[in-house]
Amino acid sequence: MYMYTYKVMIHPNNKQETKIRRSLNKCIECNHIVYDYLDNFIKQNKNIPSIYDVRRWFTVQKEIKDHETINKRIGLTKKEVIENHLDTCFYDVSNDALKQAVKDTYNSFLRYFKKISKYPNKKSFKDYKKSFYVDPYKIEFTDKKVKLEKISNSQKKSRRIINYISLAERERIPTNTKYYNPRVELIGDKFYIVVSVSDEDYLGNKKKKELDSEKIFGIDININSIVTSDNTKIERVTTKDKYHKIEKRFKKEQEKLSHKYEILKKEKRKIRNSKNYLKQKKKVNKYRNKLNNLINNDINEIITDIINLRPSKVVIETLDVKDMKEQDNKYIRKGIQKNPFSKLLNKLKERLNKVGIEIVEALKWYPSSKKCSNCGNIKEDLSLSDRIYHCPKCGLEIDRDYNASINLKNYCLSK
Ligand SMILES: [Zn+2]
User: What protein residues have CB closer than 5 angstroms to ion ligand 1?
Assistant: First the structure.
C-alpha cells in the first residue's frame, strides 16, 4: 500500500479563520496542561503513566474548566471575558483534535523514555507552524470545498456559508474515499489542509470515473496555449491581464533593485549592511513568488482540464532536454527562475498516470507541425510566425496548433 499525501491551501472566510485559530490555540493550551502534568509526574515517580490515565485525567480537567468558565462568564460581555482571561473552556473545540493533542504530547514523552528523542519542549503560541487533527470520518471533501467538524457543523441553511471552506486547488484531493490523518495547518499566515489517501482506495475511486476508451487526444503544448485535437483551446495564464500586471510590477521592482545595487557598488558598501537594498529584494521576491504561484496554479488547472475531458490516451510531442530548456529559458530570461515547461510535462505525466490515462510520446522526428493533417503533405518552409497552416497541395487552411494536435492524434492511431 502506498500513501499519497496532499497538502492544499484553504481559503477560510473571517468567521472560519477565527474558529480555526481558536482550535489551533486550544490545542496548544491542551499541550501545556498535559505537559505540566506529565512533567510533574515524571519528576516525582520517575516513570510515565499510561495513555488511558492521562486521557482520563485530562477529560476530568476539561470538564472542570468548562464548568468553571460557564459559571464565571454569566452576565459578562465578550470583551470582559477576554480582558479577564476567562476564556479557558474547551467545549467549543472538536474533541478529536484535543484527544490527538493529548496523544501527541504523550508520545513526545514516550519517545524520550524509549531514548529515541530528547526531553520534549512545550509548544508555543508563537510557533511558525501549528496544526490540529481532524477525525477522518468527520471530514468531507467536494471538488472545491472541505467540510470540517466544529468549524462547520451548522445545520441551518442561513449559516451554511461557514459550513464549507474553499480549497485553493480544485479537484486535487480525491472525493468519496478513505482519508488518513487529516490535519489543518497554519504556516506563517497561510492555512493548509493535509490529508493522506492510500492508493488502494484511490484506485477504487479511480474506477468510478470511467475513461472514454474511444477518446484519444493529441495535445500541442505552447507557452501561450494548449490545443487538443478536438479543437479545445486552453489559454495559459501568460496571456492574461492579471499575469501581465504582476509581471510589469515585477520588472519595475527589479529595475529599482538593480539601480540600488549599482549605488551600493559605487559606494563600496556591503549588501548585507544595506537595509534599503534588502527591503527592495524582499519586494522583488514577493512579486516573483506571485508570478510563480500563478504559473504553478495554471499548470494544475490545465492538467485538471485535460483529465476532465476523460481521454484514454494522450499523445504529446517528444521534447528533449535541449528543447525544454529553450522553452524554459523564455521564462528564466525574464528573471522568473522556475522551469514551467519541464514542470508542466513532468506533472502532466505524473498526474495522468495516477488517473490511468496513458501518455504516448511521438517520436522526435515526427513532423507534427509541418505535416498537413488532411492529405499528409509536408511543408518544409513553415516558419514559427505562421499561425495559420496553409496547405499548397489540398488547399487546407487550419490553425497551426490545431493541425499539430490532429497529427499527434493520427500518429497514435497509425501505430
Ligand atoms: Zn493538405
Answer: 372, 374-375, 377, 391, 393-394, 396
pLDDT number for residue 160: 56
Pull the grid cell for residue 288. Answer: 516573483
Beta strands 180-187 and 129-133, pairing class: antiparallel
Please give the distance, rounded to the nearest whole angstrom, from the Cα atom of residue 410 to the centre of ligand 1.
Answer: 14
CA of 378 to the centre of ligand 1 (A): 8
CA of 215 to the centre of ligand 1 (A): 24
What is the Å distance from ligand 1's center to 409 Cα?
16
Interacting residues of 277 by C-beta distance below 8 A, sequence separation 6+: 257, 260, 261, 264, 271
The contacts of residue 229 (CB under 8 Å, 6+ apart) are: 216, 217, 218, 219, 402, 405, 406, 408, 409
Angle at the Cα of 232 (from 231 to 234), degrees rounded to 5?
A: 135
**pTM, two decimal places:** 0.52
Confidence of residue 332 (pLDDT cuts 50, 70, 90): low
Q: Which of 340, 353, 258 is nearest to 307 (CA)?
A: 353
pLDDT (tens digit per residue) in 227-273? 888 888 888 877 888 888 998 999 999 999 999 999 988 988 887 77
Calculate how far, in angstroms, residue 367's C-alpha sits from the geometric centre of ligand 1.
Answer: 14
Instruction: Give me 150's grid cell.
Output: 466544529
Backbone angle region of 46, left / alpha / beta, with phi > 0 → left and psi within -120 to 50 → alpha: left
